[in-house]
Design a protein that fits this description.
heterodimer; A: mainly alpha; MetI-like fold; 80% helix; 0% strand; B: 234 residues; alpha/beta; Rossmann fold; 6-stranded mixed β-sheet; 9 strands; 37% helix
Chain lengths: 234, 234
């Protein structure tokens, strides 16, 4: 037990002293996961809205698949992306395996279904309420989708943050496609896994504390944004 | 674009007939009130006229429409407001109607002034009171300069004060040359605002009578029973 307190104290010093190695890892984590959530949102929000408003054959099957994909195991995504990007794979010529770009690809695939499926639900609920009014004003499906995305923007913020939380916290996908290379593809989660197995608890704990605080701060922000918006806009 | 001609229009859902072979011509001029018990098909008939529903059989034609262009608007029992300011809600309708950007804002301000909402133009629409929201819905419809305005029980959820305001606004819209077609459960309102009554019973158009005559000497036994039921002291 004593060992843990010592390690925690050491972790505090690393965080307080803005340890170079620690900050590098944290920044790479943020860079990778923020890029992934940006790409996933740019694709997933319009996709969710389109499925919510559109009527086409196979729509229900698509919704079921999308919902199921929310539970994609990160290691499976990692394996899939690894196979695609490995030298013999179909996308091997880009040579991005074991780079941050590969990690962005893997995390994007991981959270795209989350963003798309949850935004589909939110937009469709709003669509039930707005449909007649929007059609009465002459809005077609495309205009309706854009209008609904804007009108549900505060709920969508929560969804995007949930996607970010998932990306920042997963380890299975990035360790396979990134390789956990020191100074290149080492992020918070992979570093924690490695340092723990090496027995370097202070760094692992320090990163753990930062990761937890990040997730907590994100959830607080999501809650606050939604509450404030609800009060202001109804 | 008037007259609106319905030829043997029926509407069925899951084998249940909601509207049963209604044929009628609705022209400019008299304010038309659609009356009937709950489930008689008033709202459905209005949605068919407005184009929100397609008839199962029969035809609905705007005989006077030029190039199929229709200037018609509808106000619903429960106003649906977008999560933006009151004036932006009016501007949104004008944008969908293809009004030039510079003119939208001016027209929106004018119409908000006319319905007495100028002081809350910048407030988020969804935090306005029920009465204010319904006035805003009227403003949004009025701004479009409709030739026909459909109103589906526009005062059903409002207190007497707001009801009076809404009736005044409907009068103003009417004074601008807009044809009014409205459903209501309030017989006093039907008398105040109506020139002719369309009476529906079980999806059939039972009679079409000038308003004074309807309340004193209805032509059909169904209407007679309806009036007795609603005004038992007569």
């Amino acid at each position: 037990m004593n060992e843990i307190w010592v390690a925690l104290g050491e972790a505090g010093r690393l965080i307080g002293g803005l340890d170079a190695k620690l900050t590098e890892i944290v920044f790479l984590s943020l860079r990778v996961s923020l890029t992934a959530v940006l790409v996933a949102s740019a694709l997933g929000l319009p996709l969710g809205a389109a499925i919510a408003v559109g009527r086409f054959p196979g729509r229900q099957a698509l919704i079921v698949i999308l919902n199921a994909l929310m539970g994609l195991p990160p290691v499976v995504v990692g394996l899939f992306v690894y196979l695609m990007l490995s030298r013999a794979g179909p996308l091997g010529q880009f040579g991005i395996l074991f780079t941050p770009a590969a990690m962005v690809v893997a995390q994007t695939i991981l959270i795209l279904p989350i963003v798309a499926a949850l935004s589909r639900q939110v937009v469709e609920d709003a669509w039930q309420e707005y449909r007649e009014q929007l059609r009465s004003l002459g809005a077609g499906p495309w205009t309706s989708a854009v209008t609904l995305l804007w009108d549900t923007r505060f709920s969508l913020v929560t969804i995007v943050l949930a996607g970010f939380g998932r990306a920042a916290a997963e380890v299975g996908a990035v360790i396979i496609v990134g390789g956990n290379i020191d100074g290149v593809t080492r992020v918070m989660t992979t570093a924690i896994a490695l340092e723990t197995s090496k027995g370097d608890l202070p760094l692992a704990l320090g990163l753990g504390v930062i990761l937890l605080s990040l997730v907590l701060a994100l959830n607080a922000a999501a809650y606050w944004v939604k509450e404030a918006a609800q009060r202001r806009y109804g | 674009m008037l007259p609106l001609v319905l030829d043997s229009v029926s509407f069925r859902v899951n084998g249940k007939t909601i509207i049963d072979r209604v044929s009628i011509e609705i022209g400019t001029g008299p304010r038309t009130i659609i009356l009937g018990s709950n489930g008689a098909g008033k709202s459905v008939l209005m949605r068919l006229c407005h184009g929100l529903l397609e008839p199962t059989s029969g035809s609905i034609v705007w005989r006077g429409a030029v190039n199929g262009h229709q200037r018609q608007a509808m106000v619903f029992q429960r106003p649906v407001m977008l999560r933006r300011s009151a004036v932006a809600n009016v501007v949104y309708g004008l944008k969908l109607a293809g009004v030039a950007p510079r003119e939208r804002e001016l027209r929106a301000r004018d119409v908000l002034e006319a319905v007495g909402l100028a002081s809350v133009a910048g407030r988020p629409a969804r935090v306005l009171s029920g009465g204010e929201q319904q006035k805003l819905a009227l403003a949004r419809a009025w701004a479009l300069g409709p030739e026909v305005l459909f109103l589906d029980e526009p005062t059903a959820n409002l207190d007497p004060g707001a009801t009076r305001d809404v009736e005044t606004i409907i009068g103003q819209i009417r004074a601008g040359g807009t044809k009014i077609v409205m459903t209501t459960h309030n017989l006093g309102q039907a008398k105040r605002l109506g020139d002719e009554i369309l009476f529906l019973s079980q999806g059939r158009l039972v009679e079409r009578t000038p308003v004074e005559q309807f309340f004193t000497k209805p032509a059909s036994a169904e209407a007679d029973a309806f009036i007795r039921g609603e005004l038992p002291w007569n």
